[in-house]
Amino acid sequence: MSWEDDLLSMARERENASEAAIATTLLEHPGTLRRELRHDLARQADFGRLKQSDNVINLGPPTYGGQELVCPAVEFKSDSKLDVKLDLEERQQGWLVRRFQFHLHLSGRRIPMLRIHLNEQVGHDPVRVPRCHFHIGDSQAHIPFPIMSPRLMVNLICEHIEPDLGL
Amino acid sequence: MSDFSTTTAFRLIRRLALGEKSTAMYLLIHEDAEQPVVEADLQAEAEVQLGSRLPIGSVSDLSSEPGGLRLNDKNPIRVLRIDHWSPELVGLLDTHVIRLERSQAQLLFLTTDVLSEQLLIAAPNFRSRLTEVLRILPDSPAGGAPN
After folding, report:
1. CA B69 – CA A4 distance, rounded (Å)
2. Is there a domain that residue B143 lies in?
3. Do the chains contact at B143 and A32, CB–CB below 8 Å?
4. What is the phi/psi pair of residue A134, to 5°?
5. ipTM > 0.90?
6. Which residue of A has its CA nearest to B143?
7. Number of domains in chain A
8. Domain of residue A130, residue span
9. Coil, helix or strand for B81?
10. Average pLDDT of every residue of chain B
11. Residue A116, Cα to own-chain centre: how many angstroms?
12. How many domains does chain B have?
């Protein structure tokens, strides 16, 4: 096996583990997930991290076999902003995430932006583009990111990433 | 038609959760056709925010609970529909409002515009003990209205 093949094999293993994690991260019905995320954001506002507790989270029009959830502008006390787009799909075992974008625009930091993405499917070059990855600033480097519930991601962003990144 | 402040199930349950264990009585006015939606919103928000189900019943249930309100230990909030005019029930509410207040419950009386106007005139004691009269709007999952 060549060095390139060896790397590709390891990247595919990583992607298989991510796919398994996505398939076992069952989510609530989008209507309930929307309420849960809204409540999570309200709690973050109670803790003084967000500017307001009435953050708008909308159900988008149904997509093919799925449903979109959009949170256009969560504003932090620090003036950073987060926008979230989730595309969920209903499978036999329940609701799963198909794709997401978490865009964190950091205010007054050396790193102006963090983008965390889950692509709809594994690309043809998993060494370069993991399905779940993040970008620092405008960088085109795709850095692998672990699969987790969108609620946990909101918590991670609000409590750990936004307060600390690029200070 | 009186001009009351508006709320939603999300905001109201949040307010009740923050004031946990303090007595409150709200008269919530909804559009005639929106009762099932408003009840479903209240139920869903209670499950998400409080982790428990809300007992939802008719205000006439109060007349069958002479020893006091039966409340869930985990959740002191109770929703009571006032969905038809009954002088006896209104009299009961007006007479026993202090007993309701002492129950340390958080009571949400759901009713319509027409019934609320009649009730607020016919039950002055009840009115004076209310924490607030609010117009409750259905949640708007697709956006456009307040959360």
Report:
1. 72
2. no
3. no
4. -130, 160
5. no
6. A58
7. 1
8. 3-164
9. strand
10. 86
11. 5
12. 1
pLDDT in tens, chain A (167 residues): 899 999 999 999 999 999 999 999 999 999 999 999 999 999 999 999 999 877 789 998 888 889 999 999 899 999 999 999 999 999 999 999 999 999 999 999 999 999 999 999 999 999 999 999 999 999 999 999 999 999 999 999 999 999 999 88
Parent domain of B112: 5-137
Residue B79: CATH number of its domain: 3.40.50.300
**Residues from chain B contacting residue A58 (CB–CB below 8 Å):** 141-143
CB contact under 8 A, B49 and A39: yes
Specify the pTM: 0.90
The C-alpha atoms of residue B25 and residue A144 are separated, in whole angstroms, by 52
Helix or strand (DSSP H, E) at B87: helix B87-95
Tens-digit pLDDT profile for residues A2-45: 999 999 999 999 999 999 999 999 999 999 999 999 999 999 99
Subunit contact A56:B48, Cβ cutoff 8 A: no
Q: Which residues of B touch A39 (CB under 8 A)?
A: 10, 14, 48-49
Considering only CB atoms, which chain B residues are within 8 Å of A59?
A: 141-142
B14: contact with A, CB 8 A cutoff: yes
**Helix ranges, chain A (H):** 3-24, 30-46, 150-156, 162-164
What is the nearest CA distance from B142 to chain A, expressed in angstroms?
5
Does residue B105 lie within any of the structural domains? yes
